[in-house]
Give the backbone structure.
Amino acid sequence: MISKDEFNRAFRESVSSEFVEIPLKEEDID
Amino acid sequence: MMRYKYSDRWNLAVLYISYIDNEKEKKILEKIYYLYRKQMFLVARSILNNEADAEDVVQDVFLHIVSKYIDILSRIENENDLRNYLLKSTKNMALNKKKKIGRMLLFDENEDLEKFKVTKEWMDDNFEQYIFKRYEYEKVLQSINRLDEKYKLVLYYHFVMELEVKKVAVLMNQSVSTTKKQLFRGKKKLLFLLEKEEWYDK
């Protein structure tokens, strides 16, 4: 079971994953 | 195909490294493993929009290197050259996997999509409630990630941003009629993917 908030979060995460920038250096990655 | 958990996959990579006798080659593989695997993963994920598939791609690139190109890689002295090679290989392999998934989807759709009948679940309120009751977060996220971009956006604007169809049509720069069709098709595809998620793990 998921809640409406989780459903919305899944969509937001999926849409924003397109805008992930690839860091130039490993140390820039959290 | 058996799928490994993230930690299992990388334990496998470490195991491969431990079997390498040549010290120079071993160092190269360790460098790739410790310095570049996250970047490779991010490149693959940006193309596939799916963490499990991205992990598979990185693992595949790694195994590819071990089996065929370790000799060439161990001669690369410039760090940028090595990084470029690894990320380019990862990108190509991710694009190939994306095509493969596309073909699998097409095949799957031909086989099964039409079996989905229009029921009361297709109504907006029922659609959300139907998903809330039956599926877990990770499964929903994976299925959303597999949606075509146009369907994902239309569903996002309508269900998450709670915009009425007319406003979604304006945002998408298309007619209301097209938007309605995409909403219907998007809902159908999302439910289809949720039902079929286990199929991808086989």
Summary: Chain A has a mean pLDDT of 73. The radius of gyration of chain A is 14 Å. The CA atoms of residues 19 and 25 of chain A lie 18 Å apart. Chain A touches chain B at residues 1-4, 6-15, 17-18, 20, 22-23, 26, 29 (CB under 8 Å).
